[in-house]
Amino acid sequence: MENNQILTDLKGKTAIVTGGTKGIGRAIANELAQAGATVIVSARNQPEGDNSHHFIAADLTNPADVAELEQEIKQKFGGVDILINNVGGLTTPPGGFSALTDEHWESELQLNLLAATRLDRIFLPGMIAKKSGVVIHISSVAAKQPLWNLNMAYAVSKAALNSYSKSLATELASKGVRVLTVAPGATKTPPMEKFVSDYAQSSNITVEEAFKQLLAQTGGIPMGRMAEPEEVASLVHYLVSPAAKYLTGTTYAIDGGSLPVV
Ligand SMILES: NC(=O)c1ccc[n+]([C@@H]2O[C@H](COP(=O)([O-])OP(=O)(O)OC[C@H]3O[C@@H](n4cnc5c(N)ncnc54)[C@H](OP(=O)(O)O)[C@@H]3O)[C@@H](O)[C@H]2O)c1
């Protein structure tokens, strides 16, 4: 037990969690702080009354904001040991290919792929110089199980993120930097709850019925419920810790058994 605690201890490490003010990102920030890390969170809006982590305001789809975030972190912290690229989300309308404009495609790629590549470019040189560091890309089961009528461009952007993450892991494996992908299934966060309730409203059905119908389209969740953000955070904590020192280049689904693949 004591050994396990030492292996997952993060004292002396500095971590940044993008989108660390809500949902999965907030749960990860809290979990890493509890393990002893100094945690920086970024988002567009400062959370009201929550000063538990160092907050930096930045829209990560805007390179100018990212440059300011880089300056602030380099001045105040020097760099980071752990980078959690959590920012992302489904921002485009349902309805398949004909509902998606160039702007929709670009916005999904900006949020779900390019934000991560920007942050990686900033912080990887410092990790490589120290021959130590971990990068996590928060993807989605949608990358492997796209639903054409619900999330076409989002799923494509997450599939691109998975591929990028794998390439990066291979490039950096001999340089002491680990790169991993975490792919949550449906997780109980505000956008997921809104997604289900919007679907219920547009189909004129109850939220419970909407959840059942959406699940039916994916083959269901064998465990019969969504993940809690803290459950995703717990996996991320393990992956960034010394206990996972031989893990790189792999994708971990955390989905209650929903992905129908071996
Ligand atoms: N929830 C799910 O069921 C689920 C399933 C699979 C994968 N995921 C993935 O998990 C990650 C987190 O999702 P979540 O559901 O926890 O999201 P969430 O609750 O909406 O939180 C998103 C976070 O990102 C910030 N953010 C959004 N757009 C931003 C931007 N342009 N620049 C900087 N920060 C931005 C938000 O704060 P501000 O609004 O203040 O900027 C917030 O802190 C995403 O990558 C998502 O694709 C979620």
UniProtKB/TrEMBL annotation:
UniProt-listed Pfam families: adh_short_C2
SUPFAM superfamilies, sorted: NAD(P)-binding Rossmann-fold domains (SSF51735)
InterPro entries from the UniProt entry: NAD(P)-bd_dom_sf (IPR036291), Sc_DH/Rdtase_CS (IPR020904), SDR (IPR050259), SDR_fam (IPR002347)
Domain of life: Bacteria
GO terms of biological process kind: monocarboxylic acid metabolic process
Similarity comment text for this entry: Belongs to the short-chain dehydrogenases/reductases (SDR) family.
Designated name of the protein: SDR family oxidoreductase
